[in-house]
């Protein structure tokens, strides 16, 4: 069974859709008066709209060759969880003075975001010198603009982080009005506290570097821990990607009575509990394990009942897959019928691919916050796109509206059902 890329769409369902419209860019201004009028229009106050949510059970996707068919979006439609918000007035999608730049870490995701937003990526020249130093030159003016720099700090983490810092510095020195670092995957997020004496807290150091480079705001997806937001002295918009995975799981039409959500460790219980609540308040199980060293995990026992059930393991990232694969083996020993692995960030450090493709998992569901390379594909892998989610969040931040992704508690199944 060949691996494939799945782009979440807006299937026909009972969710209401967000009414949205895009306003055209202002025409070229040739006089002081027209410039003044245009700036006056642009600075008009905008009121955020209060959202009212309702939800029901999504229809299953069509199937082909045993795999759900999820059509690729070619229009500005929203992820299904955002369709539940009916706005009295659409977001003012003015591209005036909005610039999108992409680093080299995940160009494919940046292109998907720009297509969703109906914009073109701004031109930038990024290259490496022979000694490894990074050179960045903006190829168009950003003076007075709201600039969004899309660059995950995924492996190679140090190079991608330095590239982001140089991009931020280039925008600051080019007189950009606002600089937002869009970081789909925030590297060093796991170094958020001291677990032993004389350790560094690298997450705080990276936050300081981004702030001192000149960023005014950070937009990040599924941080490893919530306290990482407090390490920044600038606003942080935390985008939760779980609704994208929930929409896809809904297409699997798994019976509610057969479902159990599993946290691979005690630290992820809050995440798994929130995930289970949105799956019609599914039962929860916990894998208790003890970590003996970095990237080495030992599974101890299971808290909860998984016998004869479909187990959905939920985590924020998969690195070497030691924790989640040993947890899956334990679930099978305890009688689980099928095991699904769901995570936002697919780091996939060796030997993750060997562990994930060993037959323990029915399916491994991840997102494209980190680019998926061909060598990392295996038959059970499904990659979902978060481009529409990030694109919509950028529009709302640009228009001074609250990102809808923060309304986590409102987007969930309100009553149990036979199928979620």
From TrEMBL:
<dbReference type="Pfam" id="PF14572">
    <property type="entry name" value="Pribosyl_synth"/>
</dbReference>
<dbReference type="InterPro" id="IPR000842">
    <property type="entry name" value="PRib_PP_synth_CS"/>
</dbReference>
<dbReference type="GO" id="GO:0009156">
    <property type="term" value="P:ribonucleoside monophosphate biosynthetic process"/>
</dbReference>
<dbReference type="Pfam" id="PF13793">
    <property type="entry name" value="Pribosyltran_N"/>
</dbReference>
<keyword id="KW-0808">Transferase</keyword>
<dbReference type="InterPro" id="IPR037515">
    <property type="entry name" value="Rib-P_diPkinase_bac"/>
</dbReference>
<comment type="similarity">
    <text>Belongs to the ribose-phosphate pyrophosphokinase family.</text>
</comment>
<dbReference type="GO" id="GO:0006164">
    <property type="term" value="P:purine nucleotide biosynthetic process"/>
</dbReference>
<keyword id="KW-0460">Magnesium</keyword>
<dbReference type="GO" id="GO:0000287">
    <property type="term" value="F:magnesium ion binding"/>
</dbReference>
<dbReference type="InterPro" id="IPR000836">
    <property type="entry name" value="PRTase_dom"/>
</dbReference>
<dbReference type="GO" id="GO:0005737">
    <property type="term" value="C:cytoplasm"/>
</dbReference>
<dbReference type="InterPro" id="IPR005946">
    <property type="entry name" value="Rib-P_diPkinase"/>
</dbReference>
<keyword id="KW-0418">Kinase</keyword>
<keyword id="KW-0479">Metal-binding</keyword>
<dbReference type="GO" id="GO:0002189">
    <property type="term" value="C:ribose phosphate diphosphokinase complex"/>
</dbReference>
<dbReference type="GO" id="GO:0016301">
    <property type="term" value="F:kinase activity"/>
</dbReference>
<protein>
    <recommendedName>
        <fullName>ribose-phosphate diphosphokinase</fullName>
        <ecNumber>2.7.6.1</ecNumber>
    </recommendedName>
</protein>
<keyword id="KW-0545">Nucleotide biosynthesis</keyword>
<dbReference type="GO" id="GO:0006015">
    <property type="term" value="P:5-phosphoribose 1-diphosphate biosynthetic process"/>
</dbReference>
<keyword id="KW-0067">ATP-binding</keyword>
<feature type="domain" description="Ribose-phosphate pyrophosphokinase N-terminal">
    <location>
        <begin position="98"/>
        <end position="214"/>
    </location>
</feature>
<dbReference type="InterPro" id="IPR029099">
    <property type="entry name" value="Pribosyltran_N"/>
</dbReference>
<keyword id="KW-0547">Nucleotide-binding</keyword>
<dbReference type="GO" id="GO:0004749">
    <property type="term" value="F:ribose phosphate diphosphokinase activity"/>
</dbReference>
<dbReference type="GO" id="GO:0005524">
    <property type="term" value="F:ATP binding"/>
</dbReference>
